[in-house]
C-alpha cells in the first residue's frame, strides 16, 4: 500500500510538472506565430494549409486532411475561409472534375511568404540562442512523445 501512495504522489508530481511545462511551452510556441498570423487575419491551421499548398504541386483538400490526420470537414471549413479571403482558388482535375486542386492566389503567395518569413526570423533567434542541436533534440523528443502517445490503445487508456 505504501508503494501505491508513493507512486500516486510521484504520478501527481509528474502530472503537475507536465501541466506547467505544457502551459509554458504552448505559450512560447504560440507567441512564435501569433503576431504574424494576427496581422494577416489567419489562424495557425490556415497558415499550415497555405504552406502545404505553397510547397506542393497538386494538393487537394483530402490530401491535407490525411496529412494532418483530421476530417475533411475540418479542413473544408479552413479552406472556405481562405477562399473568402482570396488566398486560394480551386481548379478541377481534367480527368475527374469532382477532384479539386488547391492553388495560392497572388495574395495567398504574398501572405504565406510574409508569415513564413516572420516566423522563420523569430525561430532563428531561438536557434541562435539555444543552438540547432538543442532545438533538434527537443523536437525529436516531442515527436517521439507524440508518436508513442498516439499508439496507446483503448485498453492502455482504460488501465
TrEMBL record:
SUPFAM superfamilies: Winged helix' DNA-binding domain (SSF46785). GO terms for molecular function: DNA-binding transcription factor activity. One of its GO terms (biological process) is response to stress. It comes from the Bacteria. Residues 8-147 form the HTH marR-type domain. It holds the Pfam family MarR_2. Gene3D superfamilies: Winged helix-like DNA-binding domain superfamily/Winged helix DNA-binding domain (1.10.10.10). SMART domains: HTH_MARR. This is Transcription regulator. It comes from Lactiplantibacillus fabifermentans DSM 21115.
